[in-house]
Each structure stands twice: as structure tokens, then as C-alpha cells.
Design goal:
The complex is a heterodimer of chains A (about 300) and B (about 375). With about 300 residues, chain A is α/β, with parallel strands linked by helices. Chain A has helices spanning about 45-50, 75-80, 95-105, 110-125, 140-150, 170-185, 195-200, 240-250, 265-280, 295-300; strands at about 5-15, 20-30, 35, 60-65, 80-85, 155-160, 190, 205-210, 215-220, 230-235, 260-265, 285-290. Chain A has 2 domains: about 5-220, Rossmann fold; about 230-300, 2-Layer Sandwich (Alpha-Beta Plaits). The chains are: A alpha/beta (about 300), B mainly alpha (about 375). Chains A and B meet through helix 1, helix 2 and helix 3 of A and helix 1 and helix 5 of B.
Amino acid sequence: MTAQGVVAQGVKRRFGAVEAVRGIDLTAVPGEVTALVGPNGAGKTTLLLVLATLLVPDAGQVTVAGFDPVTQADEVRARMGWAPDVFGLYDNLTCREYLVFCGEAMRLAAAKARTRASELLEVASLTEHADQPVHTLSRGQKQRLGLTRALVHEPEVLILDEPASGLDPRSRVDLRVLLRRLAATGTAVLVSSHLLGDLEELADRVVFVDRGATVGEHRIDQLPTNVAPRPWRLRSLDLPALLAALARTGYDHDEPTPAGVDVRLNGDEAAAALIAGLVRDGVPVVSCHPLGGQLEATYLELTT
Amino acid sequence: MTPQGIRVVARQEFTIRIRAGRWRWLLSIWFVLLLLVTALLKLSVDNIDTGDAQNKGVVVYGGLTLLMLGLALLVVPSLGAQSVNGDRERGTLATLQVTRLTAGDIALGKFVAAWGTSLAFLAVTLPLVGYCMFLGGVPLLRVLAVTAVLALLLGTVAAFALCLSSLLARTTTSGVLSYLVVFALTIGTLVLFGLGAALTRENYTEVTTCPTEQQLIEQGVPEADRPNILQGCTVSSFASSRTRTDRVWWLLAPNPFVVLADAAPQLPPETAAEKKVRLADEARGISRINLRQADPLGALGRTVRRLRSKPNADGLILSVLTGRGHKPVWPWGLGFDVALGAGALWVTARRLRTPSRVLPRGQRVA
């Protein structure tokens, strides 16, 4: 049996003089959510276009759902759903018409396409907007509709480019729940995103890319700790006393803001030691917490 | 590529077009414009003193058809010129390409929608065509042939526009270029033909020969006259120059107006009864216009057929009037145009094929 999910090895793609992807390795396993993380221009979208059967890579081995997206594009398309970072919707169709059209484009029978459209409208909580034209939807609703389009043929592999950008917190939670549910039913989900806080709760694995190449591939629960000093935020009832204590003990800190004072610390032990010291000095500390998650710290360390 | 795939795309495109545009208004304006033209043509025909009032429809129909083609050539390019690159700009093309629809499905579906929309304009004018038939002198066969050729020509232009929209990244560029293609087909062919014809100018010597006695007998010249003709005849020659349009007629052939006019079946010639009436009128000093000879389509068709003929071909003068004895031009012109249109569709489908290797400058996949 060939490998399922997504397997990409040594993918390269250049556009004229620009080498957009210079060697990305990535795997996305069925039943897991894999996050693709990297700065703008790192080659994420280009890689996803290769996986989505839209671009021919210059080099590298790629299989999606066990098929080659270049030579077996139709087989891949039958098993893969892709949602780009633009909506790509037809403004004048209603939500239902749009989903029925997408179903028919996926060669579903007309009746099947209609029932599937109703199911997906439910999934996207768009049932009450089903017969409204797409241009009346809010940004979040459009985003959800764009995502459900990719689900129309119940794909084995789901590829999402920035699915959460521009979504409100509530919709982001809904998206997270939906993607986890899809993964639980055996779908291989590959998501590119900048929202690292969300990814930490969503993804099982994370692939870091920078300047067109893979720079790290980790399980979320096994991210390297102590990679670099990261900011922790301190709040105290007595700001001058806190600043004085920090100055005395020689900790580097940023300008205080109403939110607190940020201090760079090397890992949890350093934080515990600092708090112990401050309490000992009688500084009324209210809170001390790391800024950004472990994922963000790793991201900042691995990318430039 | 499957019929279902083409149908899915075409239906989708139709729905979007119908909801996006103010079609009712556009089609109404179109109809009113052509209605005015028809009315004016009818009025002017009424002012002509003719011997064949039962043929009034001929001139009205000819004028209406040529004008309709002219207007359609202004409308049709805009129907397809943003079809592909517009979808690219809106980000809807890539989502279509990752479905199981093939590039051929998408290209042909879009073409069917653009062509179908242009045929709606044709359909709206059918009542006016019916009125022309009611006025008389327009056989059904002529209407069928003209409508079919008109539809094919509009399809060709729609295919060109679609192809340009797949080749160029910007919708404005493809729009302008589509109109330039129409310009090349209409004015461009005319200019090229004129320039080409000027190059074919040649000097020649015309030699008048004397008939033999045998030829005179065959032509039924009375025996008494024969010696005079034979003795009075001298072989003479004079130098002159002429344009050999028979060498460059094909430059004019792709012109849509030429194709349409020449493809319209020629009307029947003057009947014996009509001739009798005309001669009687002429004897009384009345000159009347035969409306079938004034048919704009027929006149244009006869002209281009004459351009295709070699000079001094047998019975030239006579055939100028009847249009008989000359080879038609339209099969070449229409064949060329339709082949070009089919080629344009093929290019479009190729350009829509994914995964793609090369992208044009400044173009995003999605």
C-alpha cells in the first residue's frame, strides 16, 4: 500500500529568478492535524499549491492520498480538499447553490450534491443563510463557506491555507473543533497559519519552514524547551518596588507598560527562581506568565 | 472532458451572468435600436418606385442583418474577454481547477456560456426578421442560412475573446485586444486587401482576334454579312493595366460581413413575367428599380465573387449582374474563421490545464 496522507520530500519550485521553495520535507498523517508554520514568503502557499495539484514542482517527491499530484491529478482531486487563502466564492450565488455546484464539479450525482450541501450548511452554521447570496455574508461566514467547499466530497486529505485569518475568536474556536473532529474521523489535515496560539491547541504536529526550506518538524507536545530566552510578563501592586528589585538582581527588562513589565528568562526554572526572589524581597507580585506559547518561542528561534 | 462537466460549468456561468448584468436593459436597448433601423429601412424602401412591391423585405432584411452583425461585433467581445482572467483575479478559477472538472470542461463551459449569451441577442431580433419575411421576398432558406452563419461568426468572436482572457493576466488588456481582433477582421482585412490588390497591378496587352468563317456560321451570322465582317476585321492590340484581385481575394474572405453576405443564398433572377413588365415600362420611359438587385447582401456577395474571378473569364459582364458563374468566397472565409475559433478554444483549454509548469508574468495561481 502506498503512503496515505501527504508526503513531500525535497520539494523545489522557482518562479523565474525567485526560488520560492528550496527543499521542503513534510508529512501529514491521517488522523492528525499538521501545522505548516513560517514567515510570510517562506514558501508555504507555493508548497500547498503543489500539493493541491495546481503547480508542478521543479524537483522532489510528492504524494497526496497515495497519488502523484502531477501525473495523477484527477485521483488526487477526488480525495483531496483545498481551501486557498482567498475566498474564491461567486458573489451572486446563494450558499446552497454554491455548494451544490461544487458538489457537481466533484462529479457527485445531483441528488447527492444537494443532500451534501444541506449537511455542510449545517456544519458551517450557515443553514439560516442558505438561500442568501454569498455577497451578503460576513467575512467569517464566507471563510466558513470556503472551507466547507473543500469538504464537499468528504476528502481524505484536507489542505487549508490560512483558514483562520480574519476570523473572530468564536469562529476560530469553531474551526478548531471542526478540524479536530475531521482528524478524529481519519482525515489528514494540513493547515498553514500564523495564529500560533490557536495552532498549539489544534495541531498534533508542526513543520517549521523558513526561506523555502524545512527547518524543524516536531510533535506539539515534544517541542524543544529552553531553546532561547523568552519574555515573561510580571505584574506587581508596587511597580517602583518591582523595578528596583529587578535592577538590583540584574534582570534585563523592557519599558514598563500598563500591562506589566516584560523580562527575558531562560525556561521555567529561571521563572520560578525569579518569583521566589521577588517574594523574598517583599515585592507584591500579582502575576508572572510567559508571553506567547512554546510554539511561538520555537518559531522565533527557528525562523528569521 | 464530459458533457456533464461542460454543462455544470456553463450553467454556473449563465447563472452568474444573468444575476450580475442588467440583461433586460441591454437586450431592450438592442431591440429598440434594431427596431428603429428596420423602421427607417422600411420607410426608405416605401419611397422607392419599384416594379416589385412584393419584394420590399429583401432590402430591409439585408440592411438589418448587416447592421446586426456590426452591433454584435461590438457586444460579443465583452462577453468573453474577462471570463478566465476575471475568475483568476477573484480567486475562483483555482477552486474550479482543483475539482474533477477538466481544463476542457472549463474552457468549453465558459465558451458555451459566452456564445449562448450572444445568441440571446440574435434571438431577440427574430421578430424583426419575421417582419421582413412578412414584407416579402425573403425566403426561409435565406433566413436559416444567414442566421446559422451569423451564429457561427459570433461564436468565433466569443472564442477569440475567451482565448485572450486566458492568455493575458489583466482583464482590461484582454478586453482591448478582443476589440482589436474584431477590428483586424473587419477593417484590417479590407485594408490588407486594398494594399495587396495594389501590388497585383500588371500591364497586359489585349489582342482582338478575327473570327473564322466557321465561327460566324456557328453564331448564325447571315451569309450576306460574312464577307464584310471577315474583310473589315484587322488584328489589333492595345496595352493597358489591370488589378488582379483574383490573386488576393482571400485577404478579404475572413471579413465577417463578406462571409455573411456571400453565404446568403442568391435570390432568384428576374422572371420572364417581371422582365416583360420591366421592358414595357422602359418602352414608356419609366425606369424602375428591381428590389432583388438592390439587395445589400446579394450585391456585396456578387462583388466579392467577381473579385475572386480571373479577368476576362467567359461571360464576365453578364455574370456580374446575375452573380452566376463565379465561385463563392464564403466557404473559405467561414472555414478560416471557424478554424481559428476552434484553435482559440484549444489554446484556452491548454492554458487552463493544471498542474501548471510556467506562469505568465505577474500572474498568481490562486
